[in-house]
Amino acid sequence: MSHTFTAAAVQMVSGDDLAANLARAEALVAEAAGRGAQLLALPEYFYLMPADEQARLAITEPFGAGPLQQRMAALAARHGIWLLAGTLPLRGSQPQRFCNSSLLYSPQGQCAARYDKIHLFGFDDGKERYAEADTMQPGCEVTSADTPWGSMRLSVCYDLRFPELYRHGPAPAIITAPAAFTHTTGQAHWELLLRSRAVENLAFVIAPGQGGVHPGGKRTFGHSMIVDPWGQVLACHAEGEGIALATLDLDRQQTWRTRLPALQHRRF
């Protein structure tokens, strides 16, 4: 196992032009890979942030086939990187609903893990309303992936509010949380949630987000971050397109886990 590696959380401001979004994602991935990133993560909905949520239904794909998945697999292989394709719209079992799926690709372009977002976001304060359950079907399985740097626990955005998701074995060395956090909730809770999940699991958290204004006037919080197991923010990109890049030290993680063996002290 390599003792240090470089990770990147790619931040985007995706719009309603699929081709343009994919081109920007590829350019940002190429930039991060050029800066030495070995593990790169794109944000939730990097491919499309439309005014009408129904627009994603028109481009759903069966798992293992389709142009979006093929393009991400090729991107990982082209740069020889581990690539987390934030989320992609995979065909579900329920009519008029899709799975909001986070897919991890190996440097060979193989899909190493699939996670379907379990917790679907709902929020209504009278001014803003979000109801992911209108167009999505929830996943039901916790997903871990084996990587050269240890076990990775896949999660998406709203999942961060449900710490029990990260308590299933094996204990993750890395947590990924691609997101499109609203500006309202992100301003209040985003960093707090990321640092909490890192500290309580003594895990690195890689959290790429959407960070700007999107079609229909929706505003996302951004502040894509990489957080270490001691809760320190190693890198942050606040607003707009960009990359949060950091070197992750697995020896230091093991030192923290040895000095504070909280994972072994759990009683429930």
TrEMBL record:
GO molecular-function term, one example from the UniProt record: hydrolase activity
Gene3D superfamilies: Carbon-nitrogen hydrolase (3.60.110.10)
Protein name (record): Carbon-nitrogen hydrolase family protein
Pfam families xrefs: CN_hydrolase
Top-level taxon of origin: Bacteria
Sequence ranges assigned to domain CN hydrolase in this UniProt record: 5-250
Keyword Hydrolase: yes
Signal peptide (UniProt feature, chain positions): none
Keyword tags: Hydrolase
